[in-house]
Specification:
Elements lengths: L4 E4 L2 E4 L3 H14 L12 E6 L3 H7 L1 H8 L3 E4 L2 H9 L10 H15 L2 E6 L2 H14 L4 E6 L6 H11 L3 E5 L4 H9 L7 E4 L3 H5 L8 H5 L3 H8 L1 H50 L19 H14 L3 H15 L13 H28 L4 H17 L3 H11 L1 H8 L62 H7 L12
Parallel strand pairs: 3-4, 3-8, 5-6, 5-7, 7-8
Antiparallel strand pairs: 1-2
Length: 494
């Protein structure tokens, strides 16, 4: 299934909307075998993240491990949604555990999926079982059990004997997360989800906040008003710890964002002026540096990101472009190509492999840059302009970009693929040794090679002056220094 996630203080926050997530879960269950547990079978583990749980996860290593290795971690709570948006993450809406559970019940009733209900008091879970059977005819409830049994292995055996396909766990946190993380795979279930106090609400024992309160993100306030003695201390501690973690990171991110917005016009003008005024055919003279081999993707990506982080002036940009070109093309070939030299053609065939490796590095760094990709786009554009100028077959370079690095191709040539070369007038076969292909644009004849570099549509986006610390908003330092002490929830199964 296609998954979109964003890093959020060390956790991978799932970006799927509720309906998409439910469809993906049902498709997952559909693809799994119905025979007893086989090596190919695996339990899909779903967790929810709210403002109270985040500071606990930062101070509890086991809870953090359970959340960070989940197959899906949904933003349950407007505090998470607001904080993620203020940090630039594309979180569209919250996805609550109780809403996902209710949506899955309708689908499971049609699919014949066997479910098991674990948690809450005995009368609550029994009442929920009866209500679900009336509300969703055809729903198969393989079994249920209250949440006051301390022996997890015993619970796993009961669930395994029921032959349930899906497990809903309404235990207190962090026991709920640890049960889904470690015990659920032993039950034979192919899907397990922690739903907190959803059993009490769905069974009618606890009234949920009105819809208008939910849409305004005030559902936590409703819970405090309904149960002030139980909820006030819990939310006060959790929200204070959440604010200590998120507020400093949000302030730093927003300050950098506004600083970049003021810097972009001036720097963009200088970079574009440099690229347009510099002759594209100038010889490359890169300084001697300690570069890794291109075939070592991880080391190459780290080297390039380091160069971007150290880039302060337009001269740094030009030097970086020259170094990368020297990285790709041997010194003896960095001169005007001889179209009649068969030996040089063989050498250029070997260079194509280096170009592919560099494109893989570009693709990785471009993806890692997210929405702050102007610097890497400027570097990639400058390198491609040099390659078009030096390579005896510029159209081949363009084909390599499209085939090897689709994101780079979309960024440089546009999603509509406004290509620089008319491929209808060129051979589709690989580079012919020793023959200079004819370049053209429709019926207007050959194109001038010096025009190829300036034709690249460089995007003007947010510049990352501090690229090396792009993930500092949710790095380990803030996590360890600002995390609130872990205070387990009360013994209530809610």
């Amino acid at each position: 299934m296609a998954v979109g996630v964003s890093a959020f203080f060390g956790l991978q926050l799932d970006l799927r909307a509720q309906e998409t997530l439910c469809d993906d879960i049902c498709n997952w269950l559909d693809r799994q075998t119905v025979s007893p547990m086989s090596p190919a079978q695996r339990c899909f583990r779903h967790h929810c993240l709210n403002a109270s749980k985040l500071p606990h996860a930062q101070s509890d290593r086991a809870l953090f491990q359970a959340l960070s290795t989940a197959d899906c971690l949904s933003p349950d709570g407007m505090g998470i949604v607001w904080a993620a948006r203020l940090l630039g993450l594309p979180v569209s809406a919250r996805v609550t555990g109780i809403d996902v559970m209710a949506a899955l019940m309708r689908r499971f009733a049609k699919m014949g999926t066997r479910i098991f209900l674990l948690g809450a008091a005995a009368d609550v879970v029994a009442g929920l079982r009866d209500k679900l059977r009336r509300q969703y005819p055809g729903l198969v409830i393989a079994g249920h059990h209250h949440g006051y049994e301390p022996d997890d292995e015993k619970l796993a055996a009961i669930i395994r004997n029921s032959e349930a396909d899906a497990l809903f766990v309404a235990l207190p946190s962090p026991r709920k997360e640890m049960f889904v993380h470690t015990i659920a795979p032993k039950t034979g279930c192919r899907f397990a989800m922690g739903v907190g106090g959803a059993f009490d609400v769905l069974a009618g024992k606890v009234q949920r906040a009105p819809v208008i309160w939910q849409r305004c993100g005030l559902e936590f306030l409703w819970r405090i008003l309904c149960q002030p003695r139980a909820m006030m201390p819990r939310y006060a501690s959790g929200l204070w710890g959440f604010a200590k973690i998120t507020v400093p990171a949000i302030i730093r991110y927003q300050m950098r964002r506004w600083q970049h917005l003021l810097t972009v016009p001036l720097v963009s003008f200088l970079l574009i002026g440099l690229i347009i005024s510099r002759p594209l055919s100038m010889p490359v003279s890169a300084r001697t540096i300690d570069r890794p081999a291109l075939v070592d993707e991880d080391m190459s990506v780290g080297w390039l990101r380091g160069r971007l982080a150290d880039m302060k002036t337009a001269d740094d940009l030009d030097m970086t472009i020259s170094e990368i070109v020297a990285w790709i093309i041997p010194e003896e070939l960095r001169s005007t190509p001889d179209e009649n030299d068969a030996t040089a053609s063989d050498d250029w065939d070997a260079v194509d492999g280096a170009i592919k490796a560099a494109l893989v590095v570009f693709e990785t760094v471009l993806k890692m840059s997210g929405g702050q990709s102007f610097l890497i786009e400027a570097v990639i554009g400058g390198v491609l302009a040099r390659l078009f100028d030096l390579h005896p077959d510029p159209a081949r370079v363009e084909r390599l970009v499209i085939a090897t690095a689709p994101n780079v191709a979309d960024t440089m040539f546009g999603r509509e693929r406004n290509l620089l070369f008319d491929h209808s007038l060129m051979s589709a076969t690989p580079f012919d040794r020793g023959v200079q292909p004819t370049l053209g644009s429709g019926q207007n004849g050959p194109a001038d090679k010096d025009q190829f570099g300036t034709a690249l549509p460089f995007a003007t986006k947010q510049i990352v002056d501090d690229f090396r610390d792009e993930n500092a908003s949710w790095g380990r330092a803030e996590s360890e220094e600002t995390a609130a002490p872990f205070e387990p929830e009360d013994a209530s199964p809610r």
